[in-house]
User: Fold these one by one.
Assistant:
Number 1:
Amino acid sequence: MSTATQDIQAFTQQEYKYGFETPVETETFPPGLNEDIIREISARKREPKFLLEWRLKAYRHWLTMKEPTWANVKYPPIDYQKIVYFAAPKGWKKGPKSIEEIDPELLRTYEKLGIPLHERERLAGVAVDAVFDSVSVATTLQEKLSELGIIFCSFSEAAEKYPELVERYLGSVVPYTDNFFAALNSAVFSDGSFCYVPKGVRCPVELSTYFRINARNTGQFERTLIIADEGAYVSYLEGCTAPIRDSNQLHAAVVELVAHDYATIKYSTVQNWYPGDKQGRGGIYNFVTKRGKCLGKYSKISWTQLETGSAITWKYPSCLLIGEGSVGEFYSVAVTNNYQQADTGTKMIHIGPNTRSTIVSKGISAGHGQNTYRGMVKILPGAENARNYSQCDSMLIGNECGAHTFPYLEVKNPTARVEHEASVSRIGEDQIFYCRQRGISTEDAVSMIVSGFTRQVLQELPMEFAVEAQRLLSVSLEGSVG
Amino acid sequence: MLEIRNLHAKAGEKLILRGVNLKVGAGEVHAIMGPNGSGKSTLAQVIAGRDLYEVTEGEILYEGRNLLELSPEERAREGIFLAFQYPVEIPGVSNLYFLRTALNAIRKHRGLEELDVMDFMELVRERVKLLGMNEALLERPVNEGFSGGEKKRNEILQMAVLEPRLAILDETDSGLDIDALKAVAAGINAMRSPERAMIVVTHYQRLLEYVEPDFVHVMADGRIVRSGDKELARELERQGYAWLEEEAALAQENRS
């Protein structure tokens, strides 16, 4: 092996920096899943009756379903009776509370993660909902937002305070019958964020949820619901991390977005769940269903994701383009290093006339990572003059990783225009040597090349997070070129 | 400035350089000519530190130091520049950003302050003008979609901005039409100075009509088999390399 290869490999073996555990006493349910557990979760959250009914229906449906096997990922069978479905810091009580009432250990945790919850230290221009295991521990800036009529709170709070909104929209984009993991989530979802932006309001700050898994052997099943009413605008960002553990943990979330006439929702994800170690032990199984409904005319939903974490990622943030002239976008960077596997992409379903969609996917594989883009573009008969542009680029670092692309295309209207471009490239030793010959170190060369490759996507992230994303990207790839 | 003694290097199991000796002083321009496969480009790459090649014998002294101990980026920061025969594309990274990162890495190494965007732009614009290049190339990704001529010119621009002490130009003339060749030669000549040495690796004599070398060396079979002044280049142009190969074959026989 050449020394450059060794240098580059050494550089990609960086440690996961969010792997610490919070020493907080946790109250957990016994492992396993049955109707009593579901009733208990619902009771703990003082949920309205319709919600419990809905959970139970979802659970009964889930029992009839089989785990999907079509994804290009490999993992041992999951024993759903060994998972803990609810974990919360001891003494956790539902409902809004002041920052003084929160366990200082929890505050320290979020500080260490770079998400201070104290008023004076908060990130400017960002409201945060902090979700720790199965519960939301704090939501910032709520009062300010409520002056504008914006509701931003934990899902549990929304179920209690705004049951009519929750009942109307929950499951309206991702029904509990949708798929195996969505059904499971519908039965046992614990917390997540809820957001409603009223007619004509432009949300002045970034809304953000920070998901943290801390407890052992616990699954996280959050549910996020965002509604932008007529002419409203909201930009939302989620971030995720978890401690280092040598067993796998399941994360099965559902995100539903609804955009009414002329409304815009921008949804960004920086996913950095624990990816497992260099031998592929441990890490999060990230099986997520995300879908947006462009219900109104000229509405727009834009997904941007930076996926660097998780042992396995299985997610396809999608858009149902129903309203006339509505727009769906998907910008993605997915990184798999060591033994990570990702099967990710999008579905753009064109239903209304003059609908448009754009897909830009950048996959980076390093080490033994396997990266799959799976995307569907469907133009239904009523989607007169629909347009789609897709671009899927893969970058390989080293010789033992893989990149795969599965584009599905279904066009039922002859006026549609669909374009697809794909490319595969490799960070070569020649590129690295070229940079080094100009005085640039291997580390800087790799991050320069990768940031050039991903720029088109990362520039879609809210500015507050772009720098962090850039940094995360180079850390995730440390030790990978060769 | 540069002294190469009995340099042997191999790629994999194949011995390519078989005892190169060469001395280059400040202010001098050396041309290295020779047929394909004679080891010219390998020599250039070994000086720059490409680790596809393993040095098995001999040494390279640069400014009195053992060059072989330095990593490629350290050599670059110490003032060695290689204009690549096949410049590499880096999609999505602007030429400007690349150049500024390189220049600042070198400046930092030398204890100089890093240049900010404004000062850097001033410097680059001046060099672009000097080389008669199109400024639009600066905003484009490094070498991506550049024509052959644009790539070679871009190498010369990098040299002009990084101001090396020793510049090695590896077949910078190949694939250029006559106008591009003249432009590249003008760029090289503008960079000649009493403090700077240059090694021009070329297959043909035509670049040497525009860039006049102080010394010409001919390589064959991994060694410098003849050295002279620019007259030697003209002789080669008339006679071709066939006679060299005969000589090399003879040498081979004597060895075995």
Number 2:
Amino acid sequence: MSVSDATTAVTAELAARDDMIVCEGVNKWFGDFQALDGISAVIKEREVVVVLGPSGSGKSTWIRCINRLEVHQEGRIVVDGVELTNDLRNIEKIRSEVGMVFQQFNLFPHLTVLDNITLAPIWVRKKPKRETEELARSLLERVGIPEQAEKYPGQLSGGQQQRVAIARALAMEPRIMLFDEPTSALDPEMIKEVLDVMKELATSGMTMMVVTHEMGFAREVADRVIFMEDGQIVETGTPEHFFTSPEEERTRLFLSQIL
Amino acid sequence: MSNTDQATLAATQARRPPFYRDATVLKWLAQVVALLLVLFTLFFLATQAQGNLEEKKIATGFDFLGTALGSDLGSGIDTDPHTSGRALLSGAVNTIRLAIGGIIAATILGVLVGVGRLSSNWVVKRMCSVFVETMRNIPLLVQIILIFVVIASLPRVEAVGEPIHGWLHLSNKGVSIPRVHISDGFYQWLVFLLIGALVGRWVMRRRLRLHDDTGRETYPVLSFAAVLGAFAAVGWFAHPIFGWVGAIFGLVADIIDSLSQTVVQAVISALAVAAAVWWIRRFLARRRTPAGLTKLTDDDRFRIIFAAAGSAVVIVVAVTVPSLSSVLLDLAGGRGIDWLRFDNGFFGWLSEKFGNGRTGAPIDVKRPDIEQLGNFPNYGPSGLNLTQGLAAVYFGVVLYTAGFIAEIVRGGILAVPKGQTEAAQAVGLRRVTMLRRVILPQAFRVILPPLGNQYLNLTKNTSLAIAIGYTDIVQVGQTVYNQTGKTLEVVAIWMLFYLACSLTISVVVNFFNVRMKIVER
């Protein structure tokens, strides 16, 4: 059976047409410690999902499994109809369709802002340099820092760096964006500028999965909130439902601690 | 700010502290005192040494370089040098060969082993670890002697006149492999290669630009190689048409020969002044802001003064030592230097090599041969010979240094934060692209400074050749001072030679270091 046959089969069996991310019984251990414990969830196209939970609850591990920065050991993950397996071709395909923004920005310090953004389109998508640079400039415009194109990451503030990181991810024209605590390493006055960019992205119809502690963002932007604890999904619901009348005791406890 | 405040401020500024509390004055004073101390110490040592030597009736000076030397050298550009100077030159060339060849090989091996230690392949990883630990923990001298002894236990060379059979000959005299000989048409062919490289570069740039504009794969490097290859192929047959190039060099050589010593002294002085002026202007230009010249710090003033003083020293040396200028003239023009057995100066040599009447193939390959000049058969000059001593020193320093370079490379790669790999993976870069574009450029900046140190170490460690009698500059120098008694002079030559090597390496490494720097702020 060829790869495309395999992926079609999976799509038919597991995922409806507008399912972007499908997780089914995902388990992962770090040594003896079970980081993910039977995670099953479906994220639809154009949906914005915020993942909440205390630290160590497996939020980041889960989101990192979705583009194979961590390897899940049991269960299945299907992203846009392609199943994540050891098949390098599938991994490559998924990574080029899933953009990721990290807590620590992880910009390439030896490259200018423009080169940071154009690196992957040029080397992965094999696009002409001139065209990519135009794209990069328009993306910088979109995240509000067109004047920083020629600078190096070390010359920018944290908020500016994170916006460059978002532009870098967008340059691959992904169908899904993953955010792993994008504002946790920022000074308070810079959080808003990054959240604004994310809000704009959400309204433009991007499928987004966001791990964050920004309750305001979750309330305002999320279509759905997923609450995790000890590697399990405890509760899922719309923001109003989740913040006003949570069903689980553990959710209520978490909310009482942070609100 | 009110007027009274300004008045107080002005008064405070006007009141200078006494000189022993004035930081600026003290700083200058300390610099001058330090400089005087150094100069005085040097002067003291020099006069003392000179006095003692005169008292013991030991003549000093470098005249011995031109006197005959009654020794053969085992290997090198000239195994039977007619003067001490020529012998030392031959030894210096041996050392430089060892250093350059050693640096290249040690770098390649070291990088492979260093990356290998990070491999996820268990066998490769273990093998590389064993290599590193073995090389690092056995003294270099022991390794050199070990290799020497191993080669000595190989079968003896049998005397045969004709070229040997096969491509590789291994014996207790070392290793001999076929050698590419530069023959008559080579230099004219070189002109073709040069033009080919220039045209190829032009084509490559055009193809690169085409790639940038369209994203199409345009194979820039491949097209460069194709152009160069085409020129090389045509030049192989057509090279005699460039015979006239030699005449140009001949003309230059004649012009240089007609110059007088005074002209050279004037040119050197002018160059020294020009260099100082250029440096100071560039320095001031860097200190200039849109608002005008920034205030110079004391350090800045020191640098300017030293630049000027440096050029003054060059001029004084050029004027007081006229023989330096005539040596330079001989080296550059067509006269040559007899005691170094240079029949020609640089341009004279070029005019001969590029001249007409050389119509043979540019290069030809010869098999190793064995000849018997004295009592024992040995490898002849037609093969590329790695003699026993050379092999021992070369493999000794290469393996030893590679062990250290491997650790430096491993450390450099590990020093790149994990987030960089993750970010590169997340945007979909493949492994090779990620290494080439993201990891290595960052690792390189950590690797470079200690790598430069290893290059310096390797160069200096080649002096261990003396232990097994390979004719590097130290071994030759020892022969020379045993025969002439000029110990101090030979040591001075050694020191100057190694200093020159080290400074060259430092300059090259620093050049790359500055280029690799990451811009922050």
